[in-house]
From TrEMBL:
This is Glutamyl-tRNA(Gln) amidotransferase subunit C, mitochondrial. Keywords: ATP-binding, Ligase, Mitochondrion, Nucleotide-binding, Protein biosynthesis. Residues 372-456 form the Anticodon-binding domain. Pfam families: GatC (PF02686), HGTP_anticodon (PF03129). The lineage of its organism: Eukaryota, Metazoa, Ecdysozoa, Arthropoda, Hexapoda. SUPFAM superfamilies: Class II aaRS ABD-related, Class II aaRS and biotin synthetases, Glu-tRNAGln amidotransferase C subunit. One of its GO terms (molecular function) is glutaminyl-tRNA synthase (glutamine-hydrolyzing) activity. Allows the formation of correctly charged Gln-tRNA(Gln) through the transamidation of misacylated Glu-tRNA(Gln) in the mitochondria. The reaction takes place in the presence of glutamine and ATP through an activated gamma-phospho-Glu-tRNA(Gln). Gene3D superfamilies: Anticodon-binding domain (3.40.50.800), Bira Bifunctional Protein, Domain 2 (3.30.930.10).
Amino acid sequence: MSASAGSVLSLFELTLSQGILYYFNIINDTCNESWKNRSKLPERTTIDADTIALLERLSLVDCANKLGIATLEAAIEFADQIHQVDTVGVEPLITVLEDFHLILREDQVVQDCTKVETLSNASITEEDYFVAPPEKQGFIRKNLRREWFNNIVINSEICMFLDEDLSATFSFANNFCDNTLPFGLAQEFPLYDMNQQAGINYNVLNEALEFDRFFLPKDKICLNSTIFLPANDSLPFFHKWQKQRRMWWRKFSPNPGRYSLTDIKIDNKSFQSVDIVAKYSWGNQIVERLYISPNCDNADEVQHQFKKHNKTIEACKVVSEVSLNSLFLNTICDAYEESEYKGNSRTFFRFHRKLAPYRISLTLAASSPETKDELNDLALYLTKQLRANNVSTLYLFNRTCSASKDSWVQFDELGIPYNVALDENTLKNGVIFLRSRDTTLKEEVHVSELISYVNQLFKNY
């Protein structure tokens, strides 16, 4: 970098800081007017195309237009006023604490603890860095729980209440709604303890969900929703609810036709049930059970009385039962895909964008250590910006690949929808390649527009 370009960059960065601008405003208001004499100022700086390209690369600010250049030149001219300040006889500032004596010490290197000793305190390390411990619940399970909660509670047309204590929440919801139907309860609790939850046959659910047999009993979690309705409205709602729940499963699946409804089963107590099944090559798997019960009494309680238009009415309940583990394992099996790509077998996970463990990954292609360091800095900056905008991002620090290698293979295997590729040209023109896992197509995006573009990609999903 030339001296002139470095000075322009420094002044440019200073003028972007509110604190520096405030300092310059004080100079304008309090200093001698002669400092504003244009004849005493340096010649107005002009910005050429090479300087603009350099500033865009280093600051990630898009200045490639007449208005941006004019604003930048005006900012530099404004900053030039500081050259008029008379600093003759002014000692360099060492500390802002002018009223206190600053104690200096000899600048000697003292190594109290080695790198190996420091890293030994971490349970998990990656190269020379600490790795934060993973969450108790993985990313996919966390995303699945969130989407179930959004569908059942947040986006429901019926007033839903979330709690772990069925009886207490039922009483609160009933009083809150003034004994008026409909309303519902949403719960999440361990399956092995479900027998204590009255009125719900969790043993049947535990046996029906075949994916659950791969998990320990203590790890089995049930996601349950119970909606209380007038008896006359319960059957039409039950049929509508079946279609809505099947649509929910299809929404997140790369193979929507996999999900279907079984025939309705009716027992001698007018208890109707239906299952949502996923079709696989090895057989059908039950992923959710829906049923309608002709009464809404809880095991140890008398049947609650509800009212409609000042009349006492009977009520029914429509129940949806999902195992979180079955939901998780089904998502893994559903997303797994093998296909041909450029004559080679391609194995990857086609996770929905909202369910993927990460939404964006970053890869680097560098031919020299110097370029590698610059790309690392840029990748870290982009990672922080994406995460600050709630875009889960995976960047394996200090890991690069050759430009010719298909560096995205490992990220397709992780099911990450998009990969950002940085190379040496990125440092020159600020352009990165954004590759889609599903289409394998790449598109060019300027680094200054990456955040807004990625947010737009995920906005409607």
